[in-house]
Amino acid sequence: DAKTTQPPSMDCAEGRAANLPCNHSTISGNEYVYWYRQIHSQGPQYIIHGLKNNETNEMASLIITEDRKSSTLILPHATLRDTAVYYCIVRPYGSSNTGKLIFGQGTTLQVKP
Amino acid sequence: NAGVMQNPRHLVRRRGQEARLRCSPMKGHSHVYWYRQLPEEGLKFMVYLQKENIIDESGMPKERFSAEFPKEGPSILRIQQVVRGDSAAYFCASSPTTGEDGYTFGSGTRLTVV
Q: DSSP secondary structure string, A34-97?
């Protein structure tokens, strides 16, 4: 079972920031938070990951709360091409990592004109 | 630098036939993962392989399914005696190490069993 909880769907206006929440209250100290998205039955696409510090790359920003029990993925200027299912995943780092990702149901983000 | 290449993109098999799905990882990636997505369902891990070794096959059905990643050539997911319930999208991903910096997924193979 997935160790994360996400809202099933969200809407966002084109050009506005999309803030996607994720709850991972049982996260362990050696587990990272990863975000992937899947656009209309294509292969999933890696977005970003983090441990406890906020992270930013060319696609998005990841804000992780101080207690690490929740996080928010931010798409700063959403476009219609960002319409997708967004998955928040926790997985261990290092020697206890088996390489497996456990996908939940994700959040379907609909970006509207 | 080509991404993860999967072929065929679409595969139709009659019940009882064999299906062979191929995955060529990105250049320099020696770790391969297979996932299955049944219609209207989420992605489920199947198997994790390194060159010539199966590392984790905890998601593979016990019968009819097998996977390999030979020293030379692509990774192969093989489904023997296919049934209608095998109809799904099968995605392959690769990484240079165990994926700490994210996986690269292919576009998938859509298997339809008629």
A: EEEEE-TTS--EEEEEESSS-EE-SS-EEEE-TTSSEEEEEETT--GGG-EEEEEEEEE-GGG-
Interface test with B, best of A100, A105, A107 (most B CBs within 10 A): A100
For the stretch A32-78, pLDDT in tens is 999 999 998 799 999 999 999 899 999 999 999 999 999 999 999 99
Contacts of A93 in chain B (CB under 8 A): 100
Q: Is the pLDDT of residue B99 over 80?
A: no
Q: Do A43 and B103 touch (CB under 8 A)?
A: no
Residue of B nearest to A47 (CA): B102
Question: Chain B residue with minimal CA distance to A85?
Answer: B42
pLDDT tens by residue, A79-89: 999 999 999 99
Q: What is the pLDDT of residues B81-95, one digit of tens each?
A: 999 999 999 999 999
8 Å CB contact between A22 and A65: no
Pairwise CB contact (< 8 Å): B58 & A49: no
Report, as an integer, the average pLDDT of A6-21. Answer: 97
Q: Determine, for residues B42 and A34 on separate chains, whether the beta-carbon distance falls below 8 Å.
A: no
